[in-house]
Design brief:
With 383 residues, this protein is α/β, with parallel strands linked by helices. Helices cover 35% and strands 14% of the residues. The strands form three sheets. A six-stranded parallel beta sheet has the order 3-2-1-4-5-6, sandwiched between helices. The protein has a three-stranded antiparallel beta sheet with strand order 7-8-9, covered by helices on one side. It has a two-stranded antiparallel sheet with strand order 10-11.
Length: 383
């Protein structure tokens, strides 16, 4: 039986999650579960992860509670297993074999709680030649072919999509999907299991549609020459006179017609859409037109139309956009502007219940709520 709150806080209200503290996609996956209402208890180690980020500003730890446990101490693993016994889900992002060496691997946890969903977040996965080696997002997406197809220049290097594609899309989101699917199975059949979420697997899976197009002859296996990778002059990014940029996605004929008219292209240039040999000419014409006005001016020209054109905003600009503001896509809590929980639910909306969990700040509270008295000695040793 999970923790019940005094008010509904999301569709995962009542689900208990233990998160073994780490960095990157594991904490983000646990944050998403917390945003959806789960009671996430993050097990932090004394001294913290050493990232140099103020824990009070670490948004990936919002909506969670934190306890301090030294897993290398004699009684550390036992305290975590006491939490596991009362949990529905565990999330960890160690290298393969580390959790086992610490005494909190799948065998130990499932022996204590056979219904547990044990979520494992890694880059390379739990097996395979690269499994024990270090890595980061850029390397994972490189081997899957995803990085190699991103960028507008077939002769230049690929463009790096921050660490959104691998860590968070191919990693965190697939872990959450796997955990929720396994949780449903556990609740129907009483059987827990291990979810092996590897960033390489998830990122490769994300390229399914591209592989479909590649196999059908509709995609060339090189970047900057295809419909969706910058090779198409009416699906790309263009500079404005003030150094800003506009994003164009006028793929469909009717949207393209609106785009060309509002941009001010003549009929002959507009017709180049249908002639691949004239795409370089069309691209230069579009670029020249965008360079005649500022980003704000072009935004006004295309606003409210079906031309599929949008200004390229910075991270600090985005929360102020009228559409995102109207939908409250971003929220502010404790002076921190941040993306609001997503997706949205009509009956059980997610909420920002708590700011970032401070390491160990909730040890006594969790010990009481989860009925785990073994946490109290840990608290006294580390404070």
């Amino acid at each position: 039986m999970g923790t019940r709150h005094t008010e509904r806080t999301g569709p995962l209200d009542g689900v208990r999650v233990v998160e073994l503290a780490g960095i990157g996609p594991g904490p983000f996956a646990a944050m998403l579960l917390a945003d959806l209402g789960a009671d996430v208890v993050r097990v932090d180690r004394p001294g913290g992860p050493g990232l140099g980020v103020d824990p009070a500003r670490d948004l990936t730890n919002r909506n969670k509670r934190s306890v301090l446990v030294d897993l290398k101490a004699e009684d550390g693993p036992a305290a975590v297993l006491d939490l596991v016994e009362r949990a529905d889900v565990l999330v960890e992002g160690y290298r393969p074999g580390v959790a086992e060496r610490l005494g909190v691997g799948p065998d130990a946890c499932l022996a204590r709680n056979p219904r547990l969903v044990y979520g494992r977040m890694t880059g390379w996965g739990q097996d395979g030649p690269l499994a024990p080696t270090a890595g980061h997002d850029i390397g994972y997406i490189a081997l899957t072919g995803a990085l190699g197809m991103i960028g507008p220049d077939p002769d230049g290097p690929p463009s790096i999509p921050a660490n959104l594609l691998g860590d968070y899309a191919g990693g965190s989101l697939y872990l959450v999907v796997g955990v929720l699917a396994a949780l449903r199975h556990a609740r129907e059949h009483g059987e827990g299991q291990v979810v092996d979420a590897a960033i390489v697997d998830g990122t490769a899976h994300l390229t399914t549609m591209i592989h479909t197009m590649l196999g059908a002859g509709g995609w060339q296996d090189r970047r900057g020459v295809n419909l969706l990778d910058g090779g198409c002059p009416f699906y790309g990014v263009y500079a404005t006179s003030d150094g800003g940029h506009m994003a164009v996605g006028a793929l469909e004929e009717r949207f393209y017609a609106t785009f060309a008219r509002l941009l001010g292209l003549d009929e002959e240039t507009t017709a180049a859409r249908h002639d691949l040999a004239r795409w370089p000419e069309l691209r230069e014409a579009v670029a020249a037109r965008f360079r005649t006005r500022t980003r704000t001016e072009w935004t006004g020209v295309f606003e409210g139309t079906d031309a599929c054109v949008a200004p390229v905003l910075s991270l600090r600009e985005a929360p102020g956009h009228p559409h995102l503001a109207a939908r409250a896509t971003f929220a502010e809590r404790g002076g921190l502007v941040q993306p609001a929980p997503a997706p949205r639910f009509s009956a059980t909306p997610g909420t920002l219940r708590r700011g970032p969990a401070l390491p160990g700040a909730d040890t006594a509270e969790v010990a009481r709520d989860w009925a785990v008295p073994a946490l109290h000695p840990q608290e006294s040793k580390t404070t």
